Amino acid sequence: MNSIRENTMKKPQKKLKILFIIDNYHPFIGGAEILAQKVAEGLIKKNHDVTVITSNVKNADKFETLNGVKIYRITSNRYTLPLKAFFKSFKESKDCHIIHTSTYSMLPLAWFFSKFRRKNSSIVVHELLGKIWYMNMTKLSAFIHFNAERFMIRFFKFNRYIAVSAFTLNQLKDKNIPENKCSLIYNGIDALPVKPKSEFENLELFLNSSHKLIFAGRPGPSKGVMTLLESIKGLKETNPDVHLLMLLGEEPRDGYQKVLTFIKKYNLEKMITIQKQVPYQDLKAYLQLADAFVLPSFQEGFGILGGQLSTLDKPIIAAKNGALPEVLSGKVIWIPSIEPEHITKGIIDSIEGNFTTIPPKNFDWNSTIDKYEQIFMEMCNES
Q1: CA-CA distance, 58 to 28, in Å (whole number)?
Q2: Backbone torsions φ then ψ of 281, nearest 5 degrees
Q3: Exposed/middle/buried for residue 319 (C-beta within 10 Å: 0-12, 13-18, 19+)
Q4: Distance (Å) of CA 66 to CA 4, 72, 94, 178, 199
Q5: Containing H/E element for 356?
Q6: Which of left, alpha, beta for 130 (phi over 0: left; psi -120 to 50: alpha)?
Q7: How far apart, in Å, are the Cα atoms of 24 and each of 103, 229, 306, 345?
Q8: Closest C-alpha among 146, 167, 124, 292 to residue 221
């Protein structure tokens, strides 16, 4: 794709001051947050200056310097975050070279100060959800989110757009973002940290089951959680000894409550165990307990967790949605789509050992950080 910018590595000419105005950052757990932290800390190691303005998380400091990155945490309310972050952004944007953001909540604020201060701007687009907003949300909420996303992409223009996968890059092209402003930079994927764990609380039913499944992630609209639960409900009569452990984030809160309500309504407590999202350092210890993983996403812009699961030598049940075909490797059970009957068939295939083996894929963080640095340098050299 010749018209897409090539990220050739050049030696930086100066120290940059980069301001991240983003929705979430460490210790918030998620793929977007891992990317932001890796890039920010990687740029610090390359002798640049990085400041982050973001949301607050329970028990986190309002301000701290973590691995060289200055972090201002404003509020935990994502709807008031842009307003409450206005004055801090006003101050910190004055002397920076670049304002960097991502989808969604803080995007307008970052755009505003890039124009107000006449600064170079970049945005990393993880994915555009489009009609997926209408899955597992009220019609009104979905309508608002769907149209807000459309408006943001059409109205707020940035100097550079960074897509985390070829899938997301094609989404940007479909929205008529100029190709010469777009770059494809894959996220890196770390091996999960190894921390031995000898005791697991409240997992007796899971550990004693004949076939152990694990889902890990948030109950967001694109994650297919309710469809997965429908599949488990369908196995109640035929395969009652299958057990699903859900390492489940509590946000969005309405999605989390839907999961709890569904399990109680259909008396699935003997087939499903909920474990609130475990600390990252303990994640591998839990995942290694599984016989198979279920990744029922309707769409993934990249899927860092999927890449990490690929290294654990256990089958992954997934559909070829979004960037998953670009990222997954190892033992994979592809299903036609995220429907209860297809997930059920995938689970049966995992019991019977039917899977496809995909060669390993390498996603290196050093390469990712080099390419972000190169884009930031190019913007400064062009201005």
Answers
A1: 9
A2: -70, -15
A3: buried
A4: 34, 11, 22, 36, 31
A5: strand 356-358
A6: left
A7: 10, 28, 21, 36
A8: 146
Q: Using an 8 Å Cβ cutoff, are 300 and 224 in contact?
A: no
Instruction: Give the fold, CATH level 3, of 204-358.
Output: Rossmann fold (3.40.50)
Burial (CB count <10 Å: 0-12, 13-18, 19+), residue 367: middle
Residues 160-191, buried b or exposed e (16+ Cβ, 10 A)? bbbbbbebbbebbbeeebebebbbbbbbbbee
Is-cis flag, bond preceding 134, omega within 30?
A: no
CA angle 354–358–360, rounded 5-degree value: 140
Residues carrying CATH 3.40.50.2000, the chain: 17-188+364-382, 204-358
Residue 275 C-beta-side C-alpha neighbours within 13 Å:
21
- In angstroms, the CA 33 to CA 26 distance is 6
Element (H or E) spanning 295, and its range? strand 292-295
Name the CATH superfamily, with its identifier, for domain 17-188+364-382: Glycogen Phosphorylase B; (3.40.50.2000)
| Tokens at 227, concatenated | 């469809």
The pLDDT tens digits along the chain (383 residues) read 444 444 444 444 579 999 999 999 999 878 899 999 999 999 999 999 999 999 998 889 999 999 999 999 999 998 899 999 999 999 999 999 999 999 989 999 999 999 999 999 999 999 999 999 988 788 998 999 999 999 999 999 999 999 999 999 999 999 999 999 999 999 999 988 877 766 788 899 999 999 999 999 989 889 999 999 999 999 999 999 999 999 998 888 888 999 999 999 999 999 999 998 688 888 899 999 999 999 999 999 999 999 999 999 999 999 999 999 999 999 999 999 999 999 999 999 999 999 999 999 999 999 999 999 999 999 998 76
Give me Rg for the CA atoms of the chain.
21
